[in-house]
Amino acid sequence: xxxxxxxxxxxxxxxxxxxxxxxxxxxxxxxxxxxxxxxxxxxxxxxxxxxxxxxxxxxxxxxxxxxxxxxxxxxxxxxxxxxxxxxxxxxxxxxxxxxxxxxxxxxxxxxxxxxxxxxxxxxxxxxxxxxxxxxxxxxxxxxxxxxxxxxxxxxxxxxxxxxxxxxxxxxxxxxxxxxxxxxxxxxxxxxxxxxxxxxxxxxxxxxxx
Length: 209
What we know:
Layout: E1 5-8, H1 18-33, H2 39-43, H3 51-56, H4 63-77, H5 87-97, E2 100-104, H6 109-118, E3 127-129, H7 142-151, E4 158-162, H8 165-174, E5 177-181, E6 197-199, H9 203-208
Parallel strand pairs: 1-2, 1-4, 2-3, 4-5, 5-6
Helix pairs in contact: 1-4
């Protein structure tokens, strides 16, 4: 196989969470700051730095309140999550073929567990790196390097699959093959300029790795 290890972002790559993220970002912004917000302004930093850093762009003086309101709104919505179409089948096939799979996400581990409680995916992954497990966050390579270390794997044997420019930048910085996906609805495909390849359907991953 080309890449024995395949690491995945979670939001917008494996789980179809764009709608609940946007709804909670808008709720937090309108509740705490007020005014009207474009989808772009609310979502442009999603998937990269931690939630606290994302909230700085909304109001640097009210970050803690924004985070609190966001999480209170967002966490119950995990009960509505679905897979990105076809990803459950593709992940199971990759596992069956013998690939070692992992998740590297900006989500806190406790929030990842909410997603796993809704969608029974956890057994497919040998490691999960949450956003609260490293000092630095994507686009820094630290979270990806932690996942590789836990697997005892080298970057040359691994690909990272994600939907954001932060994912692609982190993959390249860590020396992984960067696979961008266009179905996430959090970032547009034209933002994935640093990807080695961009795919439009989950089934294409089976041909690449």
